[in-house]
Amino acid sequence: MKLQNTTALITGGNTGIGFGIAQALVAEGVNVAITSRSLGRAEEAAEKIRKMDGSKGEILAFEMDVKDFNAQKNVVAQVLKEWGKLDFFVANAGVGHFAPVQDLSIEQWQDTIDTNLTGVFYGIKASVEALKATKGFFLTISSLAGTNFFASGSAYNASKFGLTGFTQAVMLDLRQYGIRVSTIMPGSVATGFNDHQVDEKDAWKIQKEDIGELVVGLFQLDARTLPSKIEVRPSQTPNK
């Protein structure tokens, strides 16, 4: 599938994995809308992508909290108004609160589940009719934490285990309409997630550009074939 002149909406596209995906898609000629809870951060990221060598598609920035269903509907409507269609929805926005369950607050639990899981449900509800019209693609960004549990990960594990299962069930629901649904489950990625400061010690990790290339290849694949769940991890372990 040629990607030029297609359209994509990426939640949390202002940084990390979302930014890497947006950058890669714009380079292929995709018109991309990115969202952030901060309009300023979204616009700053969009301007960076516009200035990058090889950028072919257009890019727009929107303020949106994925926990707000009406906000997601409004952004989808604005994408349709601007470009007339929606081919790809990338549910990327996510948060992480990590603490032993006895120390995890109610607010941290709710924020994790509402963002990482309910926010994705809102995304498909907001975009499904537009994706039916294009026989489009709904992609979620889960995690290897969606099949591998760890101490202090009760909220994050619950959200990502749920997201992995949710995506697979949605895939079965929507393929009758020609909508492809898949999830990418990364391991360690060199991003600022959870306030991590990226430096040269992160060179062994997956880079955000690598996920961008993976998404481009996935979207270009002939529609008759669907990798419905993709685990991706660093090929090497960190130097001890």
Outline the structure in words.
- With 240 residues, the protein is of the alpha/beta class.
- It has one domain (7-232): 3-Layer(aba) Sandwich (Rossmann fold), CATH 3.40.50.720.
- 42% of the residues lie in helices and 15% in strands.
- The chain has helices spanning 16-27, 39-50, 69-83, 106-134, 154-174, 208-220; strands spanning 7-10, 31-36, 59-63, 88-91, 137-141, 180-186, 229-232.
- The protein has a seven-stranded parallel β-sheet with strand order 3-2-1-4-5-6-7, with helices on both faces.
- Strand 6 (180-186), helix 6 and strand 7 (229-232) form a beta-alpha-beta unit.
- The radius of gyration is 17 Å and the shape is globular.
- The chain starts with 6 loop residues before the first strand and ends in an 8-residue tail after the last strand.
- 44% of the residues are buried.
- The mean pLDDT is 94.
Give the secondary structure arrangement, pairings included.
Blueprint: E1 7-10, H1 16-27, E2 31-36, H2 39-50, E3 59-63, H3 69-83, E4 88-91, H4 106-134, E5 137-141, H5 154-174, E6 180-186, H6 208-220, E7 229-232
Parallel strand pairs: 1-2, 1-4, 2-3, 4-5, 5-6, 6-7
Helix pairs in contact: 1-6, 3-4, 4-5
